[in-house]
């Protein structure tokens, strides 16, 4: 019973956050099978990420900056980006800017959920510690996915040089945010909570603004308004 409770506590935050961003899609909800597929694909990337990170750690050492922005977050966000770009970027269901956020958070939260499960069963943790992880690393992964997906959505519906610009930003923004997250955790160990709480607050504000902006330029917005007027 305890094992089941720990498993549920490790999985629930990722599922809840994915449901939140999925339901934030105001105009054209994405097919659940594709969202679930990307969630599971994100979980499957944990093993290759761990292997690459171990190799880089042996090569670059444990410098806080190198670990935060290259070994840990650089590898994680690049592989998420790679999966997202090659599986969904040219998919026919990616037909509005907000779709990038849905699909990117699915990949990110799949990764974060399996990472959370492994942490719960390989480390001496309590439910309180899992709650802290739900509020910080897991929600952090969701927000890094929002930044990635928002920029990829802009790239998808841009033209000319703007496409490359937003594709680059779709990788650089989550790497920067995620790297800064880990850098704070590593370099301010005694008072990290006083810095991390306002930092997460800023990330959430930026994430919600990205959600609203992506919805506001949906091509289905006017169609839905017309349907509402007719009804």
TrEMBL record:
Keywords: Cell membrane, Hydrolase, Membrane, Metalloprotease, Protease, Transmembrane, Transmembrane helix
Membrane-spanning intervals of the chain: 6-23, 35-59, 101-122, 134-153, 191-208
Any Gene Ontology CC annotation: plasma membrane
Entry's EC annotation: 3.4.-.-
Subcellular location: Cell membrane
Enzyme class: hydrolase
GO molecular function: metallopeptidase activity
Membrane topology category: Multi-pass membrane protein
Taxonomic superkingdom: Bacteria
Biological processes, Gene Ontology terms: proteolysis
Signal peptide per UniProt: none
Pfam families (UniProt xref): PrsW-protease
Summary of the function given for this chain in its UniProt record: Involved in the degradation of specific anti-sigma factors.
Membership in a protein family: Belongs to the protease PrsW family.
Name of the molecule in the record: Protease PrsW
Organism: Cohnella xylanilytica
Gene (UniProt): prsW
């Amino acid at each position: 019973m305890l094992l089941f409770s720990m498993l549920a506590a490790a999985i629930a935050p990722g599922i809840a956050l994915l449901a939140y961003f999925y339901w934030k899609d105001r105009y054209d909800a994405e097919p659940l099978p594709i969202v679930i597929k990307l969630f599971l694909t994100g979980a499957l990337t944990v093993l290759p990420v761990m292997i690459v990170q171990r190799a880089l750690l042996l090569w670059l050492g444990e410098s806080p900056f190198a670990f935060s922005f290259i070994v840990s977050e650089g590898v994680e966000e690049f592989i998420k980006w790679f999966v997202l770009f090659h599986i969904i970027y040219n998919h026919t269901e990616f037909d509005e800017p907000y779709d990038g956020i849905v699909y990117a958070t699915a990949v990110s939260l799949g990764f974060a959920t399996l990472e959370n499960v492994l942490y719960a069963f390989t480390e001496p943790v309590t439910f309180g510690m899992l709650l802290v992880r739900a509020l910080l690393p897991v929600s952090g992964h969701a927000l890094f996915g929002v930044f990635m997906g928002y920029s990829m959505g802009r790239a998808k519906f841009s033209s000319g040089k703007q496409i490359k610009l937003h594709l680059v930003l779709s990788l650089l923004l989550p790497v920067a945010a995620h790297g800064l997250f880990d850098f704070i955790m590593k370099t301010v160990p005694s008072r990290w909570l006083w810095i991390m709480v306002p930092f997460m607050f800023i990330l959430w504000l930026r994430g919600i603004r990205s959600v609203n902006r992506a919805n506001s330029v949906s091509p289905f917005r006017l169609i839905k308004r017309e349907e509402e007027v007719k009804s």
